[in-house]
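Students often ask what a holo structure prediction actually looks like on paper. The answer is less mysterious than it sounds. You provide the chain, you provide the ligand, and the output is a string of discrete structure tokens encoding the 3D arrangement of the protein together with 6-O-phosphono-beta-D-fructofuranose.
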Amino acid sequence: MNLVIEEDTEVFQLTRSVTWQSLLKLREQTANDRIRDYFAQDPQRFDKMSLRVGGLFLDYSKHQLSDAVLEKLLELAHHSALVQRRAQMFSGDIINVTENRPVLHTALRNLGDQPVIVDGKDVMPEIHATREQIKRFSEAVRSGEWKGYSGERIRDVVNIGIGGSDLGPNMACRALLKHRHPELNFHFVSNVDGAHIQKVLRGLNPATTLFIVSTKTFSTQETLLNARTARRWFVEQAGDDADVGAHFVAASTNRKAAMEFGIREENVFEFWAWVGGRYSMWSSIGLPIALAIGFEGFIEMLQGAWEMDQHFLHAPLEENMPVLMALIGIWYINFVGAETQAIVPYDQALHQLPSFLQQLDMESNGKSVDIFGRPVDYKTGPIVWGQTGSNGQHAFFQLLHQGTRYVPIDFIASLKPEPGVEDHHFALLTNMLAQANAFMEGSQQGGDLDPYSCPGNRPSSVLLLDELTPRNLGALIALYEHKVFVQGVIWNINSFDQWGVQLGKRIAGEISERIDERSQDFDASTQGLLGLVRGHFKTDDKSAGKTTARKGSKANH
Ligand code: F6P
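The corresponding structure tokens follow.
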């Protein structure tokens, strides 16, 4: 029997809670507080508001947070379902209620010996089996034992995927470039724009190229079209369909569809429905990472994430890094009115981290109904954006310093310099610290009329990795996964479905199938624009979704 909440049932309303109301009052009382004054009032502020977990150090002292506000935010966490929902997630309960699934990306990096039960069965054996499959495969490709159709070793790896089947492995392979196999090159194709795959295929040798078709569902239009184009290119170049098996593997939950595409059963690296796409880099979606840095490196990355999991599970909320980051975000989003969260890695190797965190955060918490389907009356997930520093200083820091927007910033950097460029690293880190200080202090040079004056009082966290290693990267990503989870629990939303993206997919299918009709089903704008598009294409074979350019195309709207 499904639980039905009667409309008139008096249900708990977050914004009417005593704690929430107290936070609103605290906002009124502290709205004009200067962050710098908090340091003057408490010389121990930095020591009290910084935290080390493994190879990560978080300084959250430069936030517009009085002791009373932080205490009340922690009360919000204590009064929420956090402790219960956290236990449910790790144990495999069905917390993704709209898709009726557990959420078990944490099981993928479970390096302990406790079982994880799904549908009455311990899933750890199949997780271990897939890890072994990844180990064997990555060692064969990296050692040169894996040969292509000409008998040569693999030199180029092309990952074809989008969203969580691209962003995680792409970000990690870039972040860990210095750990990468010297004879392997990695390419990531995601956009359905043909220019993307054309650019990658141009200059590749089919005899030494391996394609990984990464797709949880094996039904995503962009990925299938790119995979078909890659296969067509390969067969045209290599001359034989039979060779596809030595050059195409798949990471998917859909073994049947992968094999129908032409991938050998033993080269399908399976994962499971209870792994969300944006949480899947720990699964066989992480195959490119294992190929790039080796299986041992991949396990080190899992180790770092597992250590962060243990911290998240066992540290008191007051000393819990994901919880503190989540609560700081909730303070700005729900009580200060910030609309966005900036991610500024002062680390060129992390330049794809903002894009990865965009999907992780915005696809998880970009929701407006709670887990019961009721519209919420408070803000939820922020707009997450960012770019590396020091580049951002020459792009958007002007707005952050003197604009009218209030944007909390996460600065992220690694302490250990690369040999030979220590002076660059010193400049990088000192620039970051200077910016965090300047955002807080501002500058009151010539009084209020001074055009150069910066109001300051703009908050930031500084997150330092001792070194950008697989282990610390794993911990960093798990940290943000759990931060997103904590915010979702406090907002009482489902962070693990993504119904909003299905709508666009459905309409894209309808439009592409009816390109030749003047359908009244679409609004006048879409019809008019389709008229312009229609002039350039004709559908040769609807079943294959094949369209070709119309010769001498003309606009016929
Ligand atoms: O963006 C929607 C989404 O379903 C993501 O959650 C997912 O990571 C991406 O599309 C790709 O899906 P798949 O891995 O099934 O191709």
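The chain has a mean pLDDT of 94.
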